[in-house]
Specification:
alpha/beta, TIM Barrel, 3-stranded antiparallel beta sheet, 11 strands
Length: 315
């Protein structure tokens, strides 16, 4: 019980807006397209040391949106937090369970729990228990083209988040978005979460711009936050003014040290919420576990610059 209590307290602090900017990493733990590491596989993931030292937030990927069953590997790695065991999650690191992704948005369309308000509220009741049952601090709603453009998805996604926040106010909700806002459900949630004048309605704790090449994510901030010299035309999909402190910038997992430093400087200069990297593979019994293209895998390089960014953004 103490471990889950600590998780809840951590989430409460994170949701207060008083924390440092984050350095986040999407960590591959489950994929039903991989015969070795499908959603139901029960194995013990282990972090690389650079992941333990360089990231303040870990996004575990991906939960299937049709079942919403938490993979055993998610729970196992989350339960390692603060144990100081080899490969464990350090105490104080945020753990966010990511739902969807591009494959589960195009391949599973619609998401069943976004087809009605009743289904959305019922799913919120399940997810609200993830902090106690699985050690998660929040959910990452990675709904993309396909399911994200179903006409029912947007309003029911808002219904889901409202019910989730009512049941578990400290549970974090993060939303990755395209550079140009073209996913209807994500746009609807952004517009419901923030007012045109920057009012924060307490539904979304951060949005992350999924542009990962170089420092290009900086070019898309004005699509979500109102900035001088970036005017939106009538009918632009985003009407909200997202507080800059709630915007994360995408970074490639294999970004150069110079690029990481440039983004760290930009985050501090513009008072942004931090950076999020796609992606990093983990270990299984000391060997490489689930992995996509090595061109994007931060574990191929294991840069110490991530730790420097974490230190810089903690002040």
């Amino acid at each position: 019980m103490k471990k889950w209590f600590m998780s809840t307290v951590l989430a409460a602090c994170l949701g207060s807006g008083s924390v440092a900017a984050e350095v986040g990493l999407y960590s591959l733990l489950a994929d039903d397209a991989d015969a070795r590491y499908p959603s139901h596989a029960d194995w013990q993931p282990e972090l690389h040391r650079y992941q333990q030292e360089g990231f303040s937030t870990l996004y575990f990927t991906f939960i299937r949106p049709d079942t919403m069953s938490v993979p055993p590997a998610f729970t196992r790695l989350a339960r390692s937090r603060g144990t100081n065991q080899p490969g464990a999650v350090p105490a104080g690191t945020r753990i966010i369970f990511a739902v969807g992704g591009i494959a589960y948005s195009t391949g599973i369309n619609p998401w069943p729990w976004l087809t009605s308000p009743e289904a959305a509220r019922s799913m919120a009741q399940r997810v609200a228990r993830w902090s106690h049952e699985h050690g998660a601090d929040g959910i990452d709603l990675d709904i993309e083209e396909g399911a994200g453009n179903d006409r029912r998805a947007g309003k029911n996604l808002v219904e889901f988040v409202r019910e989730l926040k009512r049941l578990n106010p400290n549970f974090l909700v993060t939303l990755p978005v395209y550079g140009y806002p073209q996913v209807d459900a994500a746009n609807t949630l952004v517009n419901a979460a923030f007012g045109p004048d920057g009012t924060d309605y307490g539904l979304v704790d951060s949005i992350g711009i999924m542009v990962y090449e170089g420092t290009m994510a900086l070019d898309y901030i004005g699509n979500y936050a109102k900035i001088p010299g970036k005017d939106r035309w009538e009918g632009f999909p985003i009407q909200a003014d997202v507080p800059k402190r709630k915007i994360l910038l995408g970074l490639k997992g294999t970004a150069s040290d110079a690029t990481i430093r440039s983004m760290t400087t930009a985050v501090k200069a513009q008072n942004l919420g931090g950076v999020m990297a796609w992606y990093g593979s983990v270990l299984h019994q000391g060997q490489k576990a689930l992995q996509y293209s090595t061109e994007w895998d931060s574990s191929r390089i294991q840069s110490g610059e991530w730790q420097q960014a974490k230190v810089q953004l903690s002040h």
